[in-house]
Amino acid sequence: MERKNYQSRPNRPIDYLKSSVNKIILIKVKRNRLFRGKLAGFDEHLNLYLEGTTQLFEYIDEDGSVHEEHETLGDIVVRGDNVIFVNLANPDG
Amino acid sequence: MERKNYQSRPNRPIDYLKSSVNKIILIKVKRNRLFRGKLAGFDEHLNLYLEGTTQLFEYIDEDGSVHEEHETLGDIVVRGDNVIFVNLANPDG
Amino acid sequence: MERKNYQSRPNRPIDYLKSSVNKIILIKVKRNRLFRGKLAGFDEHLNLYLEGTTQLFEYIDEDGSVHEEHETLGDIVVRGDNVIFVNLANPDG
Amino acid sequence: MERKNYQSRPNRPIDYLKSSVNKIILIKVKRNRLFRGKLAGFDEHLNLYLEGTTQLFEYIDEDGSVHEEHETLGDIVVRGDNVIFVNLANPDG
Amino acid sequence: MERKNYQSRPNRPIDYLKSSVNKIILIKVKRNRLFRGKLAGFDEHLNLYLEGTTQLFEYIDEDGSVHEEHETLGDIVVRGDNVIFVNLANPDG
Amino acid sequence: MERKNYQSRPNRPIDYLKSSVNKIILIKVKRNRLFRGKLAGFDEHLNLYLEGTTQLFEYIDEDGSVHEEHETLGDIVVRGDNVIFVNLANPDG
Amino acid sequence: MERKNYQSRPNRPIDYLKSSVNKIILIKVKRNRLFRGKLAGFDEHLNLYLEGTTQLFEYIDEDGSVHEEHETLGDIVVRGDNVIFVNLANPDG
Fold first, then answer.
1. Which residues of D touch F52 (CB under 8 A)?
2. Fewer beta carbons within 10 angstroms: which end of chain F, N or C?
3. CB G7 to CB F2 under 8 A?
4. Mean pLDDT per 10-residue run, chain G (93 residues)?
5. Given an 8 Å threshold on Cβ–Cβ distance, is C16 in contact with A49?
6. Are residues C43 and E7, on separate chains, in Cβ contact within 8 Å?
7. Nearest to B8 among A2, A64, A88 (CB)
8. pTM for the whole structure
9. Burial status of residue C58 (CB atoms within 10 A of its CB: 0-12, 13-18, 19 or more)
10. Can you point out the beta strands (E) in chain F?
11. What residues does each domain of chain C span?
């Protein structure tokens, strides 16, 4: 019963993704990757389907300088276990 | 039966998050990240929904100096498996 | 019930792979590997069966230069837990 | 049946935490962290709720010297999968 | 029902291993290992039983040179969670 | 049925821990740690309860020398997923 | 039904361990460890019970030389998730 309460309570984290469907979100994943794209689908594992995605990859070189690479990816399915956090769309966005 | 006892006993760790809903908490996650934001939702996996979040990223450069970066993120959903610990709001907070 | 809703809603991420069956896709996996091949099968764990696969392996040498190796693999089964993201085929592709 | 035997036998490891509730314990977690606090709650995943927690972070610098940082954290919920071991309170403590 | 569809559809990735039983396959596993052997058995976790196996271990030394070691292993059982991908036998092989 | 056979067969690995209860054992865990203590409890996840535990921590310094630190811990609960192997007590011990 | 087929088919990888019970096998585990011992028990997670075990630990020093350490361990229980592969006994062994 306890567990069901968590599942159905209104402020379950995954529920907040619904308000960002069809909006641009940022997804921070492991290994210093960042995706920016339109959220077109998600499930309870945080698997995500993103349209028009751009990847930003950050790394630090030997001199300590931070470098960032951009790459246009298009439509991607992200496996949820790579996700650190999802940055939701601005409610006005 | 044994297992149910743990689930329903009053001092289950996850239950203590309830008292911090709508309060500012700190979340320490893997890979030297720290989030500060208002707890708006959570579930039994420690997935968290945070509003008005700031990220603090600590790293040590080649000289051994500790650097800290701040970044304003807004509203985020943190995938629970990245969490090391949640620092609850001060009861007076 | 909540959970079933996620499973059956039309925009579940894994469902989008169906439109790429028999088309060329890119798969980014952990450890800097990238596969390009024709998607011939997949399951809910993101296990993938790819035909005519080429592997691209990127690494950075001591001088900071990025190197890329190509290797023709043929038909492979990728274990889903290695996948970071799947780059779907262009709808016109 | 075999499995149930393990669950209910008197010397199940998790059961020993009960005697440390409301006592000061030490928790060694991954990534060289150590928490010292009063055990206020736990579950079968070794999720822990600690009150009045101090964090001790050990690291080795370039000269091989061991450094230790102290930080007062207050009340925290530790996600169980980070725990290496829990050092129980002295029975006399 | 949705899930069962994936399980039973003809192009499930694991099903493609059946055509390689008793044939020579290549298995790429984590930590830069590669096995070549005759596939004698497998299960849904990608646990594999290989006969007459040779291990190829690649590493890069300090000069950036790629080295490869060969080792004859005989019959081995590979734990599935180490597998990155299985390179199926050539249909003509 | 197949699975039950494995569970109940007499030579299941976990069963061999029973003969070491109340005896001194060695536990090798990840991250170069070694515990020596009296086995007072265990479960099917290899969670362990040890009494009178000493921790031995090995590391290699910059000169390649192996160092070992000893630390008296007392009674600890080890989370099973950290365990590499348990070295059982000598039957004569 | 599909899944049950895999479980009960004769060439399931784990079944091949049966022929090595009471024989000397080699077990390659993560973190460059190798165990040689008599297989006295195993389960479906590849937890293993080995008698008269010797551990071989390989590492590469600063000069690129490969070193190997031997250690007599006696009877050990290996937690299955550390196993990369098991090298079965020679059928004539």
1. none
2. N
3. yes
4. 43 89 96 94 96 87 79 96 93 56
5. yes
6. yes
7. A2
8. 0.85
9. exposed
10. 24-29, 33-42, 48-60, 66-78, 83-87
11. 2-87
